Amino acid sequence: MIESLSSIYDPKNIFIIGNAFGWSTVVITLAFSKSKIVVIDAGIEGKDNMFGIELSNKIAKNENLNFVVEYGYSPQSNRNIIGKHFGDEKIDFVFIDGLHTNEQLLKDFYGVLDYVHENTIFLFHDVINWKMESAFLTIKNYLRSYNSTLLYRTTSGMAVCLPKQISDEISNIFDCFTENSNYIQVIKNSITIKAKIKSFIGSFLPKFLKDKIKKVID
Fold first, then answer.
1. Bridge partners, 93 (sequence order)
2. pTM of the model
3. Mapping DSSP to helix (H, G, I), strand (E, B) and coil, where does residue 123 land?
């Protein structure tokens, strides 16, 4: 998806929230090699996360990649870090992959609004897999001038907010990673039915029968 997007979209400034060991940072940098990319990371994702910041910056230097990872907390450190690297220039593309909670997703989103413009694209990582759909719905309701979509065909269930005036070429790329709403509802209903059956099994049946039935359901 990122590779396809980079073939027709050329953002000048990219801001990334969350780095860990830098996989997404490197991918985005390789795709948007002409962009200025700044990453903020709080260094709290496991005992080696601070090493991840150091490692990422070392890779950027050794491979001549155009990104820098700064230690800091979003949104508290955003003003200083964004001002340091972008000055008064606005951000064209925001990738949010910070702490995976609904509360923090909203903080990360609201924390960049002073530094974006009306055509900024917002991409969110891991929304579905980490059950952050309620936060994304709040963001969707806030961005009335955007088309906001859950990307069910990405591996972690990403989400995107696109300005309604964005080109059809860009919209079409993200459409390839969405899913028909009717099909989504069928899947959700199926999951709910399975959960109810498993709950019933767990309450009343002996263990050997539970195991057999669960195998059939799964």
1. 14, 121
2. 0.86
3. strand
